[in-house]
Amino acid sequence: MDQYNTLTPEIISKLKAVSDHILTGDDINPDFSRDEMPIYGTHMPDLVVQPRSTEEVAAVMKICYENTIPVTPRGAGTGLAGGAVPLLGGVLLDMSKMNRILNYDLENFVVNIECGVLLNDLAADCLTKGMMYPPDPGEKFACVGGNVATNAGGMRAVKYGSTRDYVRAMTVVLPTGEITHLGATVSKTSSGYSLLNLMIGSEGTLGIITELTLKIIPAPKASASLIVPFEDLKTALETVPKLKMSSLNPQAIEFMEREIVLASERHTGRSTFPREMEGQPVGAYLLITLDSDSEDQLYTLLEQAAELVLDAGAMDVLVADSPAKMRDAWAARSAFLEVIMEETKLLDECDVVVPVTKIASYLEFVNKTGEECGLVIRSFGHAGDGNLHIYECSNDLTEEEFKKRVDKFFDLIYKEASAQGGLVSGEHGIGSGKIQYLVESIGETNMALMEGIKRVFDPKMILNPGKVCYRLSPIYIYKPLSARYQALRISPYKRWRKTFFLFFVPSFFISYLRNFTQFYRYLYTFYIENFELRLYNM
């Protein structure tokens, strides 16, 4: 079992000796206690380091490793799965100050950056060079290091792929404080295990990414978007496979329902999407972007796309063929999450991915299940690659009742996603909020393999504990999800006697008395893990 130490004045002094960028006490911004989805928990760090160099990160990690202090890496804090929340306090590494674009190597089509560069800044800077960094997640003010840590995809993934496809190399600080370099400025390799790809999507659990070498491509000469209204969502989504099978090769295919579009337009103050066509209400939309190396070729593609969607049941086709029109169309799409958060008191999110051919039937199931569970469902997403963003909303339920209904909803829709050949996350990661669903999705064998990889990189389990393949136990000890093996090490009686004492010391009991429901859940989880699982394996 993995136990952690607290920060003492002596350890803090050591940290201050290697870094001039440390925050403690009231100087720590409360935002460091959460990401964009606080329903998965909040917890203040004991100390924040805002490093400016790889060497500074390494020095901090060495001290934390020697003293078994938990460390949580954080970028811009835009995550949606609790991945950057310091569940055990300890040290939080705010990487957002390492935000320099270091250099371009245009002959090899790469750019070198620090991990804290914002996606929006990188995209804009590449365009000044006549180049494009293709990954385009909805949150433009996320750090690129965070995009890499979750393998974010975004709107353009249907044509250009996800973040993973553009990472050539990186500099990483391991939990021990060692600095290593992974990958190279090359297009392909068969040089052993891909440690680079292990780090991509690891959510800060294996190492701290400090610098990146990213592939860039020449920017398209021309692009335009199509706003395509449909009577209903089913017809809109059934059009997507037809677009994929065509020779159009769209840059982006997004879907959205009427209600979320109207809310977004109220928020932005712009009305870009038609609400009705010839007196018939619009129920859903596709937003399609095409690009090309010439204006003539682009217009040919637009004509072909318009003919295809009209034949598939579209009510009309609106062309956004100027920068201003495209900006307005995509501004509405980019504001969806902000709008939902603004108008909703209680909110949770699922970032599920299913095969493109299954989107229509899956969302039909989702909407029906949401209605049965008494939840308001708002959905949109990347129809071109089957990545769906499904939000569960309520303004009138208690938090306890809301969580109860959401848990039931998730149990049903994640099982259905797996049944249809999907996975529990497309680009938002697992964090702390989706671990149980990951276990159910990929199985215990694969979870055990991930636990083994985690221990190789991080023997003391100090880096971002409680995320991806580890969860927090009732006594503030992290242990593997393969609890059936762990349970054999200590007899149930001894384990229960020890845990009973720890639960009822005053400091611990008082902290959980504020939320009895959560306290009960921890007790129940502990019982299941340490009694039922052990009995099952005897």
Show the helix and strand layout:
Layout: H1 9-18, E1 22-24, E2 47-49, H2 54-66, E3 71-74, E4 91-94, E5 101-105, E6 110-114, H3 119-128, E7 131-132, H4 144-150, H5 157-160, E8 167-173, E9 179-183, H6 195-199, E10 208-215, E11 217-218, E12 222-230, H7 233-245, E13 252-257, H8 258-268, E14 276-277, E15 280-281, E16 284-292, H9 295-311, E17 318-320, H10 323-334, H11 336-343, E18 346-353, H12 359-372, E19 376-382, E20 387-394, H13 399-419, H14 435-442, H15 444-457, E21 470-472, E22 478-480, H16 483-486, H17 492-503, H18 506-513, H19 516-537
Helix pairs in contact: 1-2, 7-12, 12-13, 14-15
Please, could you describe this protein's structure?
The chain folds into five domains: 9-97, Uridine Diphospho-n-acetylenolpyruvylglucosamine Reductase, domain 2 (2-Layer Sandwich); 101-218, Uridine Diphospho-n-acetylenolpyruvylglucosamine Reductase, domain 3 (2-Layer Sandwich); 222-336, Alpha-Beta Plaits (2-Layer Sandwich), CATH 3.30.70; 344-436, Alpha-Beta Plaits, CATH 3.30.70.2740; 482-537. It contains 19 helices and 22 strands. The strands form six sheets. Strands 17-12-16-13-19-20-18 form a seven-stranded antiparallel beta sheet, sandwiched between helices. It has a five-stranded antiparallel beta sheet with strand order 5-6-10-8-9. Strands 1-2-4-3 form a four-stranded mixed beta sheet, covered by helices on one side. The radius of gyration is 24 Å and the shape is globular. It starts with 8 loop residues before the first helix and ends with a helix. The model is unreliable at 474-538 (pLDDT under 50).
